[in-house]
Structure formats: structure tokens, C-alpha cells
Amino acid sequence: MLEILKAIVLGxxxxxxxxxxxxxxxxxxxxxxxxxxxxxxxxxxxxxxVIQLGAILAVVLLYFHKLNPFSxxxxxxxxxxxxxxxxxxxxGVVPAAAxxxxxxxxxxxxxxNYIMVAVMxxxxxxxxxxxxxxxxxxxxxxxxxxxxxxKIAFLIGISQVLAMIPGTSxxxxxxxxAVLLGSSxxxxxxxxxxxxxxxxxxxxxxxxxxxxxxxTTIELAVLLTGMAVAFVISVVAIKFLMSYIKRNxxxxxxxxxxxxxxxxxxxxxxxx
Length: 272
Hints:
Strand content: under 5%
Shape: globular
Helix content: over 70%
Number of strands: 0
Order of helices and strands: HHHHHHHHHHHH
Distance between the termini: 31 Å
Structural class: mainly alpha
Largest sheet: none
Number of domains: 1
Number of helices: 12
């Protein structure tokens, strides 16, 4: 029962931090210092990734109509526009997915440590603040997906490779690059969400294959609980973010990242 409660806590953390540009991995590492599982390191490495399946199902639910090219409620032109969104998602995903497949283990071996997480939290926090200050009076060029060119979609998508460094935040880096390239905050966030669908499904499948499907009963219960909680919390987090950015910029998330990065660094230095 205690392991299930721990899975609920991490499911909440995942559901909130996966979509806000504040790094789910950074939070997971910090929380796992206090919420320790009895499972193996191999299981926990897989759990951190596969729990994202719950989070991604929230995107599928919330944007099902917008992403469904076969909806009977859409006109022919609307269906073409929907397919155009998917084509741009493919353009953004394929190069990053290929590099991710090749470099996945290398990044885990060389960058998965608290120092790198803390540094990336702080670096991207500073970048968010700088970009928002720079773009304060800049005209937004991309206000809809029809304005999003395939070139821009590719550049945003390939930036996901940077998110393989723990502490970066996949949503954070894609939103940051999209805003830098002239996108509105809402389109930047939505495109980031849509890119996550194939990326997270692929990453989860890869981790499951590497781990194998030989779960103990408690491991399966922990995994399913974490995914279910992450799904529910993700629905709330996504709705919050889309409402928040209609009236605010991303600087608050930048300051939050900087403070968290300093706390992570300070905690691990003191505890060593």
C-alpha cells in the first residue's frame, strides 16, 4: 500500500511538471530523494519515462477533436487543416526521434546527475526571462498552425534533442525555441503538446522494450497507478497553462526554475 501512495505522489509530480516548462525530470530526481521506492534502479528508470503515457493521454483527450482528421463534424477544408498539423508534427518528430534513439543510452550515462539537472534548470530559467524581455514588444508572426511553416516546425522539433539532457524540459525547450522564432505562446504550447504524442509514445515503448515486460504484481500496480494519476493531473495542468499564458508570459516559470535549480544544487551538496 505504501508503494502505491508513493506512485500517487510521483504521478501528481509528473502530471504537473510534464506540461509546465519546469522539467519533470528535475522534480522527479528531487522527489525521489524523499519518496524512495523499494523497486530496482532499472524499474525506476523505466517508470520515470513510461509514467508519461498517462500524461500524454490527457493531450489526446483534450485535443481529440482538433487532432482528429476524420471527424464528421469537420468540413473538407478543416480536415485538410488537421492533416497539415499532423504533417508538421511528423516533420518535427522524425529527426529528433532518430537522434533520440541513437543517443538515449549515451545521454543517460553521461548527463543523468543532480549537477546537470540543477545547471539546466537555472540556464533555461535565465533563457526564458531573457527571451520574454527581448520579445516584449516584438510582433508575433505565428498566430495559427497555418502560419507555422514546415521549416519552423522542423527547427522546433529538432530542438527536442536538447531535452535529452535532464533538467532541460522538453516542453520548455520547444516552447522557448518556438517563441524565439516568432510563435505566439498559445501556438508554441499547443505544438509542444502535439509533438509530445509520438515522442512520448516512442520513448515509453523504447524503455519498456529495454526493461522487458516481466513485472512483479506490485511493480505493475505502481506503474498503472502512476500513469492514472498523471493522466488526471495532466488534464488540470494543461488547462491551467493554456489559461495562464493568455494573460501572462513565461517569466514566472523562468524564476521558478532558477530557484529550484539552486535548491537542488544546495540540497545535494549539503547531503553529500
